[in-house]
Design goal:
The chain is mainly beta. It folds into three domains: 79 residues, Immunoglobulin-like (Sandwich); 104 residues, Immunoglobulin-like; 140 residues, L,D-transpeptidase catalytic domain-like, CATH 2.40.440. 14% of the residues lie in helices and 36% in strands. It has five helices and 26 strands. The strands form six sheets. It has a five-stranded antiparallel sheet with strand order 9-11-14-13-26, with no helix packed on it. Strands 19-18-17-25-20 form a five-stranded mixed sheet, with no helix packed on it. The longest helix has 29 residues. The radius of gyration is 35 Å and the shape is elongated. It starts with a helix and ends with a strand.
């Protein structure tokens, strides 16, 4: 074969090989396989989805909702998850372009944003909130420890460690759910300790058998100036027991005990001495605690050295020290005269029986002449002395009642 013909043949073979290589590169580039050029793969890859998040960086201030926006297209899914796997609930707007969390970003928390659009493109983002400079906490009654079954007059009561200036924002995060749609409302006032307090009172006394759940979605909520952030959620649940009511008549010196509307017991008593500091409080109150045998010292309630003794079957009615208890030293005046230092005393036998039957949350009402008036609302649970309209007016949300 001549040199010219060999050269031509070699050129033809080389050309065929180059064509095959080009086709291979094109095909494998489109499929994402090896051997393809970067340009070929870039042409086939979908364009990244572009999102923006209102909270960015490693030093984000907590206490705001998270807002995720989409430059083009519509969201199909957005998730904002913290470092422990907890997810912030939220909603995609009607136009599909934004997603906003229903709750605030909590202090001292790492968050990851995961988003997807209707074209199945996805994007992620991360941010971290700073720790709270000051933390607010809540004392709850009935709490899980003191929950279980309570009486028909027991309110839900939250007392805060620090001041709450943003009362409306806090109240929005409080939810009461009941088994029978009980109507009630939150009301704000000062506790006996001077702390901010909010209670939930039904419009009327609870119905026996009602199941109650309370959700306090406070994590990430700012209390306002001087109060700090809440850094956790709270919840409690309890059941309403027997409809038991204790009515103390200062005129007859007797206590009437009813259960489910029936009188089951009439007890001779001696209440507070009329006039002055030793008189009993009057009005509607609530059995707060069953403390049993306790030391009662008159000096702790501003009554000098009147008494200092151990007292049995003690049941608290006010924070200021009004109790129902056994008072055997007053046996000669039960049913005849009110001579105590403000408490409602009775015989050992009557006190023992009542202590065994009574439940925290039972209604205690004192009527008749000779009292020192009604205790302040925060001195125990005095909200039942207000009308429903007066109580609703104490809500930070305009007095709109809630059906639990």
């Amino acid at each position: 074969m001549s040199r010219t013909r060999r050269t031509a043949r070699q050129a033809a073979v080389a050309g065929a090989a180059l064509l095959a290589a080009a086709l291979t590169a094109s095909c494998s580039g489109g499929a994402g396989g090896s051997g393809g050029s970067g340009d070929a793969k870039g042409e086939m890859k979908k364009k990244d989805m572009a999102i923006s998040v209102n909270l960015t960086g490693e030093q984000v201030k907590a206490g705001e909702p998270v807002k995720v926006s989409l430059a083009e297209g519509k969201f199909s899914l957005v998730k904002v998850v913290d470092g422990k796997g907890g997810e912030l609930p939220g909603q995609i707007a009607a136009d599909g372009r934004t997603w906003t969390s229903e709750r605030n970003a909590a202090p001292g928390t790492d968050y990851k944003v995961e988003a997807q659009n209707t074209d199945s493109q996805s994007a992620t983002a991360q941010f971290k909130t700073t720790a709270a400079d000051k933390v607010n906490k809540v004392t709850i009654v009935p709490g899980k420890a003191s929950g279980g079954t309570v009486g028909i007059a027991q309110p839900i009561s939250l007392v805060f460690d620090n001041p709450v200036k943003n009362k409306a924002e806090v109240e929005k995060q409080l939810k009461v759910t009941t088994s029978n749609g009980t109507e009630g409302s939150w009301g704000w006032f000062k506790d006996y300790t001077g702390a901010d307090r909010v209670d939930w009172r039904p419009k009327e006394f609870w119905k026996s058998g009602t199941d109650v759940k309370v959700q306090m979605n406070l994590n990430g909520v700012d209390s306002g100036p001087g109060g700090g952030y809440f850094v956790r959620d709270y919840n409690t649940e309890f059941k309403i027991g027997k409809d038991r009511r204790m009515t103390v008549d200062l005129d007859t010196k007797k206590m009437t005990v009813t259960e489910d509307g029936r009188t089951v017991k009439t007890i001779p008593v001696s209440a507070g001495t009329p006039g002055g500091k030793k008189a009993s409080w009057s009005g509607k109150m609530v059995l707060m605690t069953k403390e049993g045998t306790i030391r009662m010292d008159s000096q702790t309630v501003g009554l000098g050295d009147s008494y200092d003794k151990m007292v049995d079957y003690s049941m608290r009615v006010t924070w200021s020290g009004m109790y129902i208890h056994a008072a055997p030293w007053n046996a000669g005046v039960f049913g005849r005269a009110n001579t105590s230092s403000g408490c409602v005393g009775m015989s050992d036998a009557d006190a023992k029986a009542l202590f065994a039957e009574a439940q925290v949350g039972d209604l205690v009402e004192v009527t008749g002449d000779g009292s020192k008036g009604q205790a302040e609302i925060g001195n125990g649970y005095g909200e039942w002395n207000l009308t429903w309209e007066q109580w609703k007016a104490k809500s930070a949300l305009g007095g709109t009642p809630q059906n639990g």
